[in-house]
Amino acid sequence: MDWPAKVLVVSDSVHDGTREDRSGPALAELLERHDLRVLEVRTVPDGVRSVADALRQQAASFHGLIVTTGGTGFSPTDLTPEATRSVIDREAPGLAEAMRATNPLGRLSRGVAGTIGPSLVLNLPGSVAGAVESMEAVLEVVPLALTLLGGGRPQ
Q1: Could you give the 3-state DSSP secondary structure of residue 114?
Q2: Residues in the chain, pLDDT under 70
Q3: How far apart are CA 60 and CA 135, in angstroms?
Q4: Nearest Cα to 110, choosing from 119, 121, 102, 99?
Q5: What is the value of pTM for the model shown?
């Protein structure tokens, strides 16, 4: 079964148009290669409110995958995990741990994973390599997670 997906790019400079986004398109391409239908790639500025509002909007009446890219590090403006925690129903720490374990630099990621209703939310790093590696680390279990979130049973 192919699942719908949405990408949320979190970056002041991309949102302001002063930097080109490369991680959003890279993630969209990766997801589509793995039979996820990317319905939206959206950009918001850094900040708890902007990210939380966007996640709520993306998750409204949606059963699928939502990935964020950016805002997961140690910069003072990196607040994506805080925003995500403010809107998720339940955390999925095993997914976040698996994503962090892909690369030594992953230890610097504060990204979280969790659910909003039947949607799975994953915070990914903002770099292309970090975003793609993190997504690849959990991609094989995403369909099962989405099936379970919808009340289905494993095959």
Answers
A1: strand
A2: 1
A3: 23
A4: 99
A5: 0.96
Among 145, 154, 149, 139, which residue's Cα sits nearest to residue 62? Answer: 149
The pair of three-digit structure tokens given for residue 7, joined into one six-digit string:
């990408």
How far apart CA 12 and CA 93 sit, in angstroms, is 27
* Lookup: tokens for 64: 């699928």
Rounded to whole angstroms, how far apart are CA atoms 132 and 126? 10
Strands across the sheet containing 90-91: 36-44, 3-10, 65-69, 119-124, 113-116, 90-91
Within 13 Å of residue 114, how many CA atoms lie on the same side as its CB? Answer: 17
Pair 65, 142: CB distance under 8 Å? yes
Positive or negative, the Cα torsion across 28, 32, 34, 35?
positive
* Strand-strand pairing, 90-91 and 36-44: unpaired
Contact 67, 8 (CB under 8 A): yes
* Count of other CB atoms within 10 angstroms of residue 1: 7
Segment 57-83, tens digit of pLDDT: 999 999 999 999 999 999 999 999 999
Helix axes 23-33, 128-138, angle to 10 degrees: 30
